[in-house]
Specification:
Elements (H helix, E strand, L loop, with lengths): L1 E5 L3 E10 L2 E11 L9 H15 L5 E6 L4 E9 L3 H10 L1 H5 L6 E7 L20 E10 H13 L3 E7 L2 H10 L1 H6 L1 E7 L4 E7 L2 E8 L3 H12 L3 H8 L7 H26 L5 E5 L6 H11 L3 E3 L7 E2 L3 H10 L4 H10 L1
Parallel strand pairs: 1-4, 3-14, 4-8, 9-12, 12-13
Antiparallel strand pairs: 1-2, 2-3, 5-7, 6-7, 9-10, 10-11
């Protein structure tokens, strides 16, 4: 299975292979994203998907991609028990009510969340004649994005197998990489992307809340370059390094991000009367120990990068195996997208 995280600056792609009961990561690729301003054409996307497949050296034809934060959203809702097709129809007809937004020209899908056994707080007895409701993860993506991806994959000689909201990638990967923490704690997954940062709070294996912050790696790097009067490339290089001389300039960029993350965690903690125990950070920016320490100081909760490949059998070419410790945090979204269709 090929899975592609279509980033704004860098496309991250992985090739997973099932080997009995194990999943193996056989290759990954980091490619420059296509240059475009507002919308990528189908032909340009097709060329890019073809390049991804070539870089992965894959003969597989099925490909899954991500729908970015600006083009998709997810909500945890409750619906009466019914077939998935009927759930999708209800969402399409009542999206403003269930998704809390007016979403014309969107495609919808659902995933029924397995019931969580809670012996301390059993569910209340159901009234006779009242249909039981179940928890459902509802997703929406722009219909045009779906259509363009399907067409581009076909042009590239591939078959579109799935389109997964970016927000779900780290959650899927974290569930497999750290199952005990996922199932038993309240933790935050922070994915620092190019333009935005997503914050998802998981409570005993359920998505309790999610938020998008309009601060990403690009803003941090650009501001650092301007402050220090150096090139963007130089700023990007030293951002993930440990040079102490950049600490004051970097702190000016990280502090607002830390405050926004803290506000997201405060919202969950006040609503649920339960503290967030740990914060796990992914994305290229998570490679910087200095940035993680700054976030730790601002949020006042332990912040750490995590390895989304920990549950995978690594069957990578030699050089990619050596680079995995550095590259791993960037692959969380792509790995999680692949898991969504397995």
């Amino acid at each position: 299975m090929m899975a592609v995280d279509l980033g704004n600056r860098t496309t991250k792609a992985v090739l997973l292979e099932r080997r009995g009961e194990l999943l193996a990561l056989t290759r990954y690729a980091l490619l420059d994203a296509p240059v475009f301003e507002k919308k990528i054409s189908v032909d340009l996307l097709a060329d890019h998907l073809y390049s991804v497949a070539k870089a992965l050296g894959s003969e597989a034809k099925f490909i899954t991609a991500t729908a970015g934060i600006a083009d998709s959203l997810i909500r945890q809702i409750e619906l009466p028990q019914m077939p998935l097709d009927e759930m999708r129809h209800i969402l399409k007809m009542n999206h403003k009510n269930y998704m809390q937004q007016d979403l014309p020209n969107y495609a919808f899908d659902c995933y029924v969340l397995p019931p969580r056994l809670d012996t301390k707080n059993p569910p209340p007895a159901r009234e006779i004649g009242v249909a039981a409701k179940i928890k459902v993860l509802a997703a929406a993506a722009k219909q045009q994005l779906v259509d363009d991806f399907v067409q581009a994959a076909k042009i590239a000689g591939l078959t579109a197998d799935g389109l997964v909201p970016t927000l779900l990638g780290p959650i899927n990967a974290f569930e497999r990489a750290m199952p005990e923490i996922f199932a038993k704690e309240a933790v935050a997954l922070v994915d620092i992307g190019f333009h935005n940062t997503s914050v998802c709070v998981l409570d005993n294996g359920e998505l309790a809340t999610n938020r998008t912050i309009s601060i990403g790696g690009d803003q941090i790097t650009s501001s650092l370059a301007e402050e220090m009067r150096i090139s963007y490339a130089e700023a990007e290089g030293i951002k993930v390094g440990m040079a102490p001389e950049i600490e004051p300039s970097l702190l000016m960029q990280i502090t607002p991000l830390g405050r926004e993350i803290r506000a997201s965690l405060d919202f969950f903690e006040h609503q649920n009367d339960r503290p967030v125990s740990q914060v796990f950070v992914s994305g290229a920016t998570a490679r910087s120990e200095m940035i993680l320490q700054m976030l730790n100081s601002e949020i006042m909760i332990e912040c750490k990068s995590w390895n989304p490949t920990g549950f995978l059998q690594l069957a990578l070419p030699g050089q990619q195996t050596v680079e995995m410790d550095q590259v791993g945090p960037q692959l969380a979204v792509a790995i999680g997208a692949a898991l969504a269709v397995y």
